[in-house]
Give the backbone structure.
Amino acid sequence: MSADNWAICPKCKEKNVTLREDYEIGMDEFGTLSIDYSAYCKECKFKYKYNYIISIPMEDKKEIV
Ligand SMILES: [Zn+2]
């Protein structure tokens, strides 16, 4: 799943400037979950990128009690 969104920039929120966000999240057929996020404000040039990949173990499916 990927999407983009307009949020309020945390650095120039007083001016109500929008922050562009792009993100993608999903799991592939091997059980790898990846999260990709980026944000950019064209007013103050603030940008932030976050990427996280985790392999989810397919064994040891113990029931949660
Ligand atoms: Zn800004």
